[in-house]
Amino acid sequence: MINTEVYSDDRGLGYGDGLFETLRAVAGSVPLLDYHLERLRDGAGRLGITYPKAEIRQALVTALAASPNGIIKIILTRGRGGRGYSADPANPPTLLVRCFPLRVPAAHCYERGLELGLCDVRLAEQPRMAGIKHLNRLEQVMARRQVDANGWDEGLLLDDLGRPLELTAMNLFARFGDCLWTPSLSGAGVAGVMRQYVINELAPALPMTVQVSLRPLSQLRLADEVFACNSVAGILPVRKLAVWQWPMGEVTRTLQDKVRQLYAESQC
Fold this sequence. Notes:
This protein has 268 residues and is α+β, with helices and mostly antiparallel strands. The protein is 31% helix and 27% strand. The strands form two sheets. Strands 4, 5, 6, 7, 8, 9, 10, 11 and 12 form a nine-stranded mixed β-sheet that branches. The longest helix is centred in the C-terminal third of the chain and has 17 residues.
């Protein structure tokens, strides 16, 4: 049994006690759906929330019929709980599935690249919750306020030691020669679905080696090209961070084409 309505005493609302996924629907299907569901299942397991597999699948069928081209957001919380941090294990989880129109960055962002700013907010280290998409997103909310106030396209978030981790809503990649680097998210950050697709499937096909590690911010200025990604927007080049600039690289263009093809094939 699950709840399908949110209540004022729902633990997702009261404590951020839950998870979410944001899926791009294309012609009635979701590219990379298995990646999304695996991350949701992993997050539920880590938080100790019941994972209602059959109900999620059925809710997706209904949502895709109503919105075959758009955004589908899945929210899974621990359910109702009232006041206090302790939760009654007998209470069923809450499952919410909502549909939204598709919104992606402007065309010039894909062609000329993103201009980034450096956010003042630092991502706190918490390995037990790193990687999953839990509902506690205040760090990203505060960082996005700075992005909007300064008119940047996106903002780069660092860890407490000043090492780059991710953007406010996208993951970060940089090419150094024949090596594709992305920050390790074992301590903080969201392991994005498109990031996993690039690491697991796209990069090996180029072929390129992939390095997942933490590097000083200063290393970015030596990169041959930089790009950002998520499962809704796809692949976007990064052209500027403060005084540092990068060209629209060949690898970025190739990956963009691969992702466009992924979305196009979903329409066939």
